[in-house]
Amino acid sequence: MDRQNLTLLTDLYELTMMQGYFKHKDQNKTVIFDAFFRSNPCGGGYSIMCGVEQLVKYIRELHFSRQDIDYLAGLGIFDRDFLDYLADFRFTGDVYAIPEGTLIFPREPLVKIVAPIMEAQLVETAILNIINHQSLIATKAARICYAARGDGIMEFGLRRAQGPDAGTYGARAAVIAGCVGTSNVLCGELFGVPVKGTHAHSWIMSFDDELTAFKTYADLYPNACILLVDTYDTLKSGVPNAIRTFRYMKEKGVDLKGYGIRLDSGDLAYLSKKARRMLDEAGFPDAIISASNDLDEYLIDSLKTQGAAITSWGVGTNLITAKDNPAFGGVYKLAAVMGEDGAFIPKIKLSENSEKITNPGNKKIYRVYEEPAHKIKADLICLEDEVFSEEEPLLLFDPYEPWKKTKLRPGEYSLRELMIPLFKGGECCYTSPETMAIRSYCLEEQETLWDESRRLVNPHEVHVDLSKKLYDLKISLLDQISDERL
Protein backbone atom coordinates (compact mmCIF):
# COMPACT_ATOMS: atom_id res chain seq x y z
CA MET A 1 0.00 0.00 0.00
CA ASP A 2 2.89 2.38 0.70
CA ARG A 3 4.53 1.80 -2.72
CA GLN A 4 2.31 0.63 -5.53
CA ASN A 5 2.57 0.76 -9.28
CA LEU A 6 -0.87 2.11 -10.14
CA THR A 7 -0.11 2.75 -13.81
CA LEU A 8 -2.90 0.44 -14.99
CA LEU A 9 -5.36 2.02 -12.53
CA THR A 10 -6.99 3.65 -15.53
CA ASP A 11 -10.00 3.22 -17.78
CA LEU A 12 -9.33 1.33 -21.00
CA TYR A 13 -10.42 4.25 -23.14
CA GLU A 14 -7.56 6.36 -21.79
CA LEU A 15 -5.14 3.83 -23.31
CA THR A 16 -7.03 3.51 -26.59
CA MET A 17 -7.01 7.31 -26.92
CA MET A 18 -3.29 7.31 -26.09
CA GLN A 19 -2.65 4.91 -28.97
CA GLY A 20 -4.69 7.17 -31.24
CA TYR A 21 -2.56 10.17 -30.30
CA PHE A 22 0.58 8.06 -30.74
CA LYS A 23 -0.45 7.04 -34.25
CA HIS A 24 -1.27 10.63 -35.14
CA LYS A 25 1.64 12.41 -33.51
CA ASP A 26 0.51 15.84 -34.70
CA GLN A 27 -2.42 15.39 -32.28
CA ASN A 28 -0.17 14.81 -29.26
CA LYS A 29 -0.13 18.49 -28.35
CA THR A 30 0.55 19.98 -24.95
CA VAL A 31 -2.79 20.58 -23.27
CA ILE A 32 -4.30 21.72 -19.99
CA PHE A 33 -6.79 19.60 -18.07
CA ASP A 34 -8.63 20.77 -14.95
CA ALA A 35 -9.98 18.44 -12.25
CA PHE A 36 -12.89 20.03 -10.36
CA PHE A 37 -16.26 19.19 -8.83
CA ARG A 38 -19.71 20.70 -9.27
CA SER A 39 -21.42 20.51 -5.85
CA ASN A 40 -20.48 20.01 -2.21
CA PRO A 41 -21.34 16.58 -0.80
CA CYS A 42 -23.97 16.09 1.91
CA GLY A 43 -25.65 19.39 1.02
CA GLY A 44 -22.80 21.20 2.75
CA GLY A 45 -21.29 24.63 2.26
CA TYR A 46 -17.69 23.55 1.64
CA SER A 47 -15.41 20.62 0.91
CA ILE A 48 -11.84 19.73 1.92
CA MET A 49 -9.02 18.92 -0.49
CA CYS A 50 -7.37 15.62 0.30
CA GLY A 51 -5.23 13.00 -1.45
CA VAL A 52 -2.39 15.14 -2.78
CA GLU A 53 0.33 13.02 -1.13
CA GLN A 54 -1.01 9.89 -2.84
CA LEU A 55 -1.41 11.75 -6.14
CA VAL A 56 2.27 12.71 -6.03
CA LYS A 57 3.30 9.12 -5.29
CA TYR A 58 1.17 7.90 -8.19
CA ILE A 59 2.75 10.29 -10.70
CA ARG A 60 6.25 9.60 -9.37
CA GLU A 61 5.83 5.82 -9.70
CA LEU A 62 4.19 6.01 -13.12
CA HIS A 63 5.73 3.38 -15.42
CA PHE A 64 4.65 0.33 -17.38
CA SER A 65 6.30 -2.84 -16.10
CA ARG A 66 7.09 -5.77 -18.36
CA GLN A 67 4.12 -7.56 -16.84
CA ASP A 68 1.89 -4.57 -17.71
CA ILE A 69 3.12 -4.57 -21.32
CA ASP A 70 2.54 -8.31 -21.64
CA TYR A 71 -0.97 -7.96 -20.29
CA LEU A 72 -1.82 -5.12 -22.67
CA ALA A 73 -0.37 -7.07 -25.59
CA GLY A 74 -2.65 -9.96 -24.69
CA LEU A 75 -5.73 -7.78 -25.13
CA GLY A 76 -5.09 -7.78 -28.86
CA ILE A 77 -5.98 -4.12 -29.41
CA PHE A 78 -2.60 -2.40 -29.09
CA ASP A 79 0.11 -2.35 -31.77
CA ARG A 80 3.70 -3.32 -31.06
CA ASP A 81 5.14 0.14 -31.72
CA PHE A 82 2.76 1.66 -29.18
CA LEU A 83 3.59 -1.00 -26.61
CA ASP A 84 7.30 -0.31 -27.15
CA TYR A 85 6.60 3.36 -26.46
CA LEU A 86 4.81 2.46 -23.23
CA ALA A 87 7.79 0.38 -22.10
CA ASP A 88 9.87 3.58 -21.95
CA PHE A 89 7.02 5.87 -20.80
CA ARG A 90 7.55 8.60 -18.21
CA PHE A 91 5.46 11.60 -17.26
CA THR A 92 7.07 14.82 -18.52
CA GLY A 93 4.44 17.42 -17.72
CA ASP A 94 3.56 19.94 -15.00
CA VAL A 95 1.09 19.34 -12.19
CA TYR A 96 -0.46 22.01 -9.96
CA ALA A 97 -2.88 21.43 -7.09
CA ILE A 98 -4.61 23.06 -4.16
CA PRO A 99 -2.75 21.86 -1.01
CA GLU A 100 -4.21 19.12 1.15
CA GLY A 101 -6.40 20.31 3.98
CA THR A 102 -7.48 23.44 2.09
CA LEU A 103 -11.15 24.37 1.87
CA ILE A 104 -12.41 23.93 -1.68
CA PHE A 105 -15.57 24.92 -3.50
CA PRO A 106 -17.46 23.84 -6.62
CA ARG A 107 -16.23 24.60 -10.16
CA GLU A 108 -12.71 25.70 -9.23
CA PRO A 109 -9.71 23.66 -10.44
CA LEU A 110 -8.38 21.34 -7.73
CA VAL A 111 -5.66 19.87 -9.93
CA LYS A 112 -4.25 21.29 -13.18
CA ILE A 113 -2.29 19.10 -15.58
CA VAL A 114 -0.10 20.70 -18.27
CA ALA A 115 1.34 17.92 -20.42
CA PRO A 116 1.27 16.22 -23.83
CA ILE A 117 -2.26 14.97 -24.26
CA MET A 118 -1.19 11.32 -24.21
CA GLU A 119 0.23 11.78 -20.72
CA ALA A 120 -2.59 14.02 -19.50
CA GLN A 121 -5.15 11.50 -20.70
CA LEU A 122 -3.48 8.55 -18.96
CA VAL A 123 -3.51 10.12 -15.48
CA GLU A 124 -7.17 11.19 -15.52
CA THR A 125 -8.75 8.16 -13.91
CA ALA A 126 -6.28 7.71 -11.06
CA ILE A 127 -6.28 11.41 -10.18
CA LEU A 128 -10.07 11.42 -9.92
CA ASN A 129 -10.09 8.16 -7.98
CA ILE A 130 -7.59 9.45 -5.42
CA ILE A 131 -8.92 13.00 -5.00
CA ASN A 132 -12.62 12.11 -5.15
CA HIS A 133 -12.44 9.46 -2.45
CA GLN A 134 -10.20 11.20 0.04
CA SER A 135 -11.82 14.62 -0.36
CA LEU A 136 -15.22 13.03 0.22
CA ILE A 137 -14.18 11.35 3.47
CA ALA A 138 -12.35 14.45 4.71
CA THR A 139 -15.43 16.57 4.04
CA LYS A 140 -17.72 14.11 5.82
CA ALA A 141 -15.35 13.94 8.79
CA ALA A 142 -15.20 17.74 9.05
CA ARG A 143 -18.98 17.90 9.26
CA ILE A 144 -19.04 15.25 11.99
CA CYS A 145 -16.32 17.01 13.97
CA TYR A 146 -18.19 20.32 13.68
CA ALA A 147 -21.38 18.70 15.00
CA ALA A 148 -19.46 17.46 18.06
CA ARG A 149 -18.74 21.08 19.11
CA GLY A 150 -15.20 20.50 20.27
CA ASP A 151 -15.55 16.93 21.54
CA GLY A 152 -13.09 14.38 20.21
CA ILE A 153 -14.14 12.21 17.26
CA MET A 154 -12.40 8.88 16.75
CA GLU A 155 -12.63 7.18 13.34
CA PHE A 156 -13.15 3.44 13.53
CA GLY A 157 -14.84 2.39 10.33
CA LEU A 158 -12.19 0.04 8.93
CA ARG A 159 -14.29 -3.12 9.07
CA ARG A 160 -17.11 -1.39 7.14
CA ALA A 161 -14.91 0.39 4.56
CA GLN A 162 -14.98 -0.63 0.90
CA GLY A 163 -11.66 -2.43 1.06
CA PRO A 164 -8.23 -1.97 2.69
CA ASP A 165 -7.20 1.11 0.70
CA ALA A 166 -10.51 2.88 1.33
CA GLY A 167 -10.25 2.09 5.03
CA THR A 168 -6.65 3.25 5.36
CA TYR A 169 -6.60 6.34 3.15
CA GLY A 170 -10.09 7.20 4.38
CA ALA A 171 -8.87 7.11 7.97
CA ARG A 172 -5.99 9.42 7.02
CA ALA A 173 -8.45 11.84 5.40
CA ALA A 174 -10.67 11.75 8.49
CA VAL A 175 -7.77 12.64 10.77
CA ILE A 176 -6.71 15.47 8.46
CA ALA A 177 -10.23 16.90 8.68
CA GLY A 178 -10.26 16.87 12.48
CA CYS A 179 -10.65 13.39 13.97
CA VAL A 180 -8.39 12.88 16.99
CA GLY A 181 -7.35 9.41 15.93
CA THR A 182 -8.28 6.16 14.23
CA SER A 183 -8.62 2.51 15.17
CA ASN A 184 -6.73 1.59 11.97
CA VAL A 185 -3.26 0.48 13.06
CA LEU A 186 -1.90 0.33 9.51
CA CYS A 187 -2.94 3.96 8.99
CA GLY A 188 -1.13 4.84 12.19
CA GLU A 189 2.04 3.13 11.00
CA LEU A 190 2.00 4.58 7.49
CA PHE A 191 1.02 8.15 8.31
CA GLY A 192 2.03 8.75 11.91
CA VAL A 193 -1.48 9.45 13.21
CA PRO A 194 -2.77 8.53 16.69
CA VAL A 195 -4.36 5.09 17.03
CA LYS A 196 -7.01 4.58 19.68
CA GLY A 197 -9.38 1.88 20.84
CA THR A 198 -10.91 0.03 23.78
CA HIS A 199 -12.31 -3.50 23.70
CA ALA A 200 -15.25 -5.39 22.21
CA HIS A 201 -18.22 -7.14 23.82
CA SER A 202 -16.40 -10.42 23.18
CA TRP A 203 -13.83 -9.45 25.83
CA ILE A 204 -16.57 -9.23 28.45
CA MET A 205 -18.30 -12.38 27.25
CA SER A 206 -15.11 -14.43 27.36
CA PHE A 207 -14.96 -14.08 31.17
CA ASP A 208 -17.23 -15.68 33.75
CA ASP A 209 -18.51 -12.28 34.82
CA GLU A 210 -18.41 -8.64 33.77
CA LEU A 211 -16.56 -7.33 36.82
CA THR A 212 -13.66 -9.75 36.35
CA ALA A 213 -13.42 -8.74 32.69
CA PHE A 214 -13.30 -5.06 33.65
CA LYS A 215 -10.69 -5.52 36.37
CA THR A 216 -8.48 -7.65 34.12
CA TYR A 217 -8.62 -5.00 31.41
CA ALA A 218 -7.88 -2.26 33.93
CA ASP A 219 -4.82 -4.13 35.17
CA LEU A 220 -3.55 -4.38 31.58
CA TYR A 221 -4.23 -0.75 30.60
CA PRO A 222 -4.44 1.39 33.74
CA ASN A 223 -3.78 4.63 31.86
CA ALA A 224 -6.25 4.02 29.03
CA CYS A 225 -9.12 2.26 30.69
CA ILE A 226 -12.36 2.88 28.79
CA LEU A 227 -14.85 0.14 29.66
CA LEU A 228 -17.69 -0.95 27.35
CA VAL A 229 -20.70 -1.10 29.66
CA ASP A 230 -23.65 -2.33 27.56
CA THR A 231 -22.88 -6.03 27.14
CA TYR A 232 -25.60 -7.13 29.59
CA ASP A 233 -27.38 -4.16 31.18
CA THR A 234 -25.91 -0.67 31.01
CA LEU A 235 -27.34 0.91 34.17
CA LYS A 236 -27.87 -2.15 36.37
CA SER A 237 -24.64 -3.97 35.57
CA GLY A 238 -22.22 -2.16 33.28
CA VAL A 239 -21.91 1.24 34.95
CA PRO A 240 -21.95 -0.14 38.54
CA ASN A 241 -19.22 -2.64 37.64
CA ALA A 242 -17.21 0.10 35.95
CA ILE A 243 -17.45 2.16 39.16
CA ARG A 244 -16.31 -0.85 41.19
CA THR A 245 -13.38 -1.23 38.81
CA PHE A 246 -12.37 2.44 39.14
CA ARG A 247 -12.47 2.10 42.95
CA TYR A 248 -10.35 -1.04 42.67
CA MET A 249 -7.79 0.89 40.63
CA LYS A 250 -7.68 3.76 43.14
CA GLU A 251 -7.19 1.31 45.99
CA LYS A 252 -4.20 -0.07 44.08
CA GLY A 253 -2.76 3.43 43.95
CA VAL A 254 -3.37 4.00 40.25
CA ASP A 255 -3.52 7.67 39.27
CA LEU A 256 -6.59 7.49 37.05
CA LYS A 257 -6.06 9.17 33.68
CA GLY A 258 -7.94 8.80 30.44
CA TYR A 259 -10.48 6.47 32.02
CA GLY A 260 -14.23 6.14 31.60
CA ILE A 261 -16.99 4.19 29.91
CA ARG A 262 -18.29 3.61 26.38
CA LEU A 263 -21.93 3.29 25.36
CA ASP A 264 -22.66 1.37 22.16
CA SER A 265 -26.42 0.85 22.17
CA GLY A 266 -29.71 2.11 23.53
CA ASP A 267 -30.94 5.66 24.07
CA LEU A 268 -27.59 7.41 24.23
CA ALA A 269 -28.98 10.70 25.55
CA TYR A 270 -30.88 9.03 28.40
CA LEU A 271 -28.18 6.49 29.26
CA SER A 272 -25.35 9.02 29.20
CA LYS A 273 -27.13 11.40 31.56
CA LYS A 274 -27.97 8.57 33.97
CA ALA A 275 -24.41 7.24 33.78
CA ARG A 276 -22.98 10.72 34.35
CA ARG A 277 -25.01 11.09 37.53
CA MET A 278 -23.91 7.67 38.78
CA LEU A 279 -20.23 8.36 38.06
CA ASP A 280 -20.36 11.80 39.69
CA GLU A 281 -22.07 10.49 42.81
CA ALA A 282 -19.46 7.74 43.06
CA GLY A 283 -16.65 10.32 43.02
CA PHE A 284 -15.55 10.03 39.40
CA PRO A 285 -16.59 13.35 37.83
CA ASP A 286 -13.68 13.29 35.39
CA ALA A 287 -14.54 9.86 33.98
CA ILE A 288 -15.03 10.05 30.22
CA ILE A 289 -18.31 9.00 28.65
CA SER A 290 -17.78 7.99 25.06
CA ALA A 291 -20.38 6.74 22.63
CA SER A 292 -20.66 4.87 19.37
CA ASN A 293 -23.52 3.11 17.50
CA ASP A 294 -24.05 4.25 13.89
CA LEU A 295 -23.40 7.90 14.60
CA ASP A 296 -23.25 10.69 12.04
CA GLU A 297 -23.27 14.49 12.19
CA TYR A 298 -27.04 14.73 12.44
CA LEU A 299 -27.38 12.24 15.30
CA ILE A 300 -24.45 13.81 17.18
CA ASP A 301 -26.00 17.25 16.73
CA SER A 302 -29.32 15.94 18.03
CA LEU A 303 -27.68 14.28 21.04
CA LYS A 304 -25.81 17.50 21.86
CA THR A 305 -29.10 19.41 21.65
CA GLN A 306 -30.69 16.87 24.02
CA GLY A 307 -27.94 17.52 26.56
CA ALA A 308 -26.32 14.11 26.27
CA ALA A 309 -23.42 13.77 28.72
CA ILE A 310 -21.06 12.47 26.04
CA THR A 311 -17.70 14.11 25.35
CA SER A 312 -16.03 11.54 23.12
CA TRP A 313 -17.49 9.95 20.02
CA GLY A 314 -16.55 6.92 17.94
CA VAL A 315 -17.83 7.10 14.37
CA GLY A 316 -17.48 4.24 11.93
CA THR A 317 -19.71 3.25 9.02
CA ASN A 318 -21.33 6.58 8.30
CA LEU A 319 -17.97 8.34 8.22
CA ILE A 320 -15.69 5.94 6.36
CA THR A 321 -18.31 5.30 3.66
CA ALA A 322 -19.88 8.81 3.65
CA LYS A 323 -23.03 6.73 3.71
CA ASP A 324 -25.55 9.46 2.84
CA ASN A 325 -23.41 10.76 -0.06
CA PRO A 326 -21.14 7.95 -1.22
CA ALA A 327 -19.44 9.72 -4.15
CA PHE A 328 -17.61 13.01 -4.68
CA GLY A 329 -18.48 14.29 -8.13
CA GLY A 330 -15.06 15.29 -9.39
CA VAL A 331 -14.57 15.55 -13.17
CA TYR A 332 -11.60 16.13 -15.49
CA LYS A 333 -12.03 18.43 -18.47
CA LEU A 334 -9.87 19.81 -21.26
CA ALA A 335 -9.36 23.56 -20.83
CA ALA A 336 -6.74 24.54 -23.44
CA VAL A 337 -4.56 23.23 -26.28
CA MET A 338 -1.17 24.68 -27.17
CA GLY A 339 -1.03 26.27 -30.63
CA GLU A 340 1.82 26.33 -33.12
CA ASP A 341 3.09 29.60 -31.61
CA GLY A 342 3.35 28.11 -28.11
CA ALA A 343 0.33 30.00 -26.81
CA PHE A 344 -2.61 28.12 -25.29
CA ILE A 345 -5.88 28.14 -27.24
CA PRO A 346 -8.80 28.03 -24.78
CA LYS A 347 -11.34 25.22 -25.09
CA ILE A 348 -14.85 25.05 -23.69
CA LYS A 349 -17.37 22.22 -23.18
CA LEU A 350 -21.03 23.05 -23.70
CA SER A 351 -24.05 21.58 -21.95
CA GLU A 352 -27.79 22.13 -21.76
CA ASN A 353 -27.14 22.61 -18.04
CA SER A 354 -25.38 25.97 -17.62
CA GLU A 355 -23.51 24.77 -14.52
CA LYS A 356 -21.85 22.05 -16.62
CA ILE A 357 -20.36 24.51 -19.10
CA THR A 358 -16.63 24.51 -18.36
CA ASN A 359 -14.36 27.48 -17.73
CA PRO A 360 -11.81 27.77 -20.55
CA GLY A 361 -8.11 28.57 -20.63
CA ASN A 362 -5.06 28.42 -18.42
CA LYS A 363 -6.33 29.45 -14.99
CA LYS A 364 -5.36 30.11 -11.40
CA ILE A 365 -7.37 30.81 -8.25
CA TYR A 366 -7.26 33.54 -5.67
CA ARG A 367 -8.96 33.21 -2.31
CA VAL A 368 -10.47 36.50 -1.23
CA TYR A 369 -10.64 37.07 2.53
CA GLU A 370 -12.80 39.66 4.20
CA GLU A 371 -10.65 41.69 6.56
CA PRO A 372 -10.06 42.22 9.43
CA ALA A 373 -12.09 39.09 10.28
CA HIS A 374 -9.97 37.03 7.82
CA LYS A 375 -13.02 35.03 6.76
CA ILE A 376 -13.55 33.76 3.24
CA LYS A 377 -15.48 36.23 1.11
CA ALA A 378 -15.22 34.38 -2.21
CA ASP A 379 -12.87 32.51 -4.53
CA LEU A 380 -11.84 34.19 -7.77
CA ILE A 381 -10.87 32.13 -10.82
CA CYS A 382 -8.82 34.12 -13.30
CA LEU A 383 -6.44 33.59 -16.21
CA GLU A 384 -2.84 32.68 -15.46
CA ASP A 385 -1.43 36.01 -16.68
CA GLU A 386 -3.74 38.16 -14.56
CA VAL A 387 -2.32 40.05 -11.59
CA PHE A 388 -4.35 41.61 -8.79
CA SER A 389 -3.16 44.04 -6.13
CA GLU A 390 -4.60 44.45 -2.66
CA GLU A 391 -3.83 48.15 -3.11
CA GLU A 392 -6.56 48.41 -5.75
CA PRO A 393 -10.35 47.98 -5.53
CA LEU A 394 -11.55 44.47 -6.40
CA LEU A 395 -14.82 43.91 -8.25
CA LEU A 396 -16.56 40.57 -7.72
CA PHE A 397 -19.64 39.48 -9.63
CA ASP A 398 -21.77 36.37 -9.99
CA PRO A 399 -20.84 34.66 -13.30
CA TYR A 400 -24.40 33.31 -13.67
CA GLU A 401 -26.13 36.55 -12.66
CA PRO A 402 -23.46 39.13 -13.52
CA TRP A 403 -25.57 42.10 -12.44
CA LYS A 404 -24.98 40.99 -8.85
CA LYS A 405 -21.75 42.79 -7.93
CA THR A 406 -19.62 43.54 -4.88
CA LYS A 407 -16.80 46.07 -4.80
CA LEU A 408 -14.09 45.59 -2.18
CA ARG A 409 -11.85 48.51 -1.31
CA PRO A 410 -8.19 48.36 -0.23
CA GLY A 411 -7.98 47.30 3.41
CA GLU A 412 -11.30 45.45 3.23
CA TYR A 413 -9.82 42.31 1.72
CA SER A 414 -6.70 40.22 1.26
CA LEU A 415 -5.71 37.73 -1.45
CA ARG A 416 -4.04 34.33 -1.47
CA GLU A 417 -3.18 32.30 -4.56
CA LEU A 418 -4.26 28.72 -3.96
CA MET A 419 -2.60 26.34 -6.42
CA ILE A 420 1.00 25.19 -5.92
CA PRO A 421 3.32 23.24 -8.26
CA LEU A 422 3.78 19.51 -7.63
CA PHE A 423 5.73 18.58 -10.78
CA LYS A 424 7.65 20.70 -13.29
CA GLY A 425 8.84 19.05 -16.49
CA GLY A 426 8.06 15.66 -15.00
CA GLU A 427 10.24 16.25 -11.93
CA CYS A 428 8.63 16.35 -8.50
CA CYS A 429 9.11 19.71 -6.79
CA TYR A 430 6.86 19.09 -3.79
CA THR A 431 7.38 17.47 -0.40
CA SER A 432 4.23 16.59 1.49
CA PRO A 433 3.99 17.74 5.11
CA GLU A 434 3.40 15.11 7.78
CA THR A 435 -0.24 14.10 8.15
CA MET A 436 -0.65 15.70 11.59
CA ALA A 437 0.81 18.96 10.25
CA ILE A 438 -1.78 18.88 7.46
CA ARG A 439 -4.43 18.30 10.14
CA SER A 440 -3.34 21.43 12.02
CA TYR A 441 -3.46 23.43 8.79
CA CYS A 442 -6.91 22.03 7.95
CA LEU A 443 -8.30 23.04 11.34
CA GLU A 444 -6.99 26.57 10.78
CA GLU A 445 -8.57 26.56 7.33
CA GLN A 446 -11.98 25.66 8.73
CA GLU A 447 -11.82 28.65 11.06
CA THR A 448 -11.74 30.95 8.00
CA LEU A 449 -15.34 29.99 7.22
CA TRP A 450 -18.20 32.03 8.59
CA ASP A 451 -20.40 29.90 10.89
CA GLU A 452 -23.24 30.31 8.41
CA SER A 453 -21.25 28.32 5.84
CA ARG A 454 -20.46 25.53 8.31
CA ARG A 455 -23.98 24.75 9.46
CA LEU A 456 -25.21 21.28 8.57
CA VAL A 457 -28.48 22.27 6.87
CA ASN A 458 -28.99 25.06 4.32
CA PRO A 459 -25.52 26.56 4.68
CA HIS A 460 -24.61 29.93 3.21
CA GLU A 461 -22.94 29.54 -0.19
CA VAL A 462 -19.35 30.65 -0.64
CA HIS A 463 -19.28 32.17 -4.10
CA VAL A 464 -16.77 31.14 -6.75
CA ASP A 465 -16.48 34.05 -9.17
CA LEU A 466 -14.72 34.62 -12.49
CA SER A 467 -12.47 37.55 -13.28
CA LYS A 468 -13.83 39.95 -15.88
CA LYS A 469 -11.18 38.79 -18.37
CA LEU A 470 -12.04 35.11 -17.91
CA TYR A 471 -15.78 35.83 -18.00
CA ASP A 472 -15.42 37.78 -21.25
CA LEU A 473 -13.36 34.94 -22.76
CA LYS A 474 -16.02 32.41 -21.80
CA ILE A 475 -18.84 34.51 -23.26
CA SER A 476 -16.89 35.13 -26.49
CA LEU A 477 -16.35 31.39 -26.98
CA LEU A 478 -20.03 30.71 -26.34
CA ASP A 479 -21.01 33.43 -28.81
CA GLN A 480 -18.57 32.06 -31.39
CA ILE A 481 -20.03 28.54 -31.11
CA SER A 482 -23.55 29.92 -31.25
CA ASP A 483 -22.77 31.96 -34.39
CA GLU A 484 -21.21 28.92 -36.09
CA ARG A 485 -24.45 27.01 -35.59
CA LEU A 486 -26.57 29.64 -37.33
Characterization of this structure:
This protein is α/β, with parallel strands linked by helices and 486 residues long. Helices cover 38% and strands 20% of the residues. The chain contains 17 helices and 21 strands. It has helices at residues 12-23, 52-60, 66-74, 80-87, 117-122, 124-147, 164-177, 185-191, 201-205, 210-220, 234-251, 268-281, 297-305, 317-320, 435-446, 451-454, 468-485; strands at residues 30-37, 47-48, 94-97, 103-104, 111-116, 152-155, 181-182, 226-228, 260-263, 288-291, 312-315, 330-338, 344-346, 363-370, 375-383, 394-397, 405-408, 413-417, 420-424, 427-428, 463-466. The strands form five sheets. The protein has a seven-stranded antiparallel sheet. A six-stranded parallel sheet has the order 7-6-11-10-9-8. A four-stranded mixed sheet has the order 18-14-15-21. Helix 11 runs parallel beside helix 12 (268-281). The longest helix is centred in the N-terminal third of the chain and has 24 residues, at 124-147. The model has no long low-confidence stretch (mean pLDDT 96).
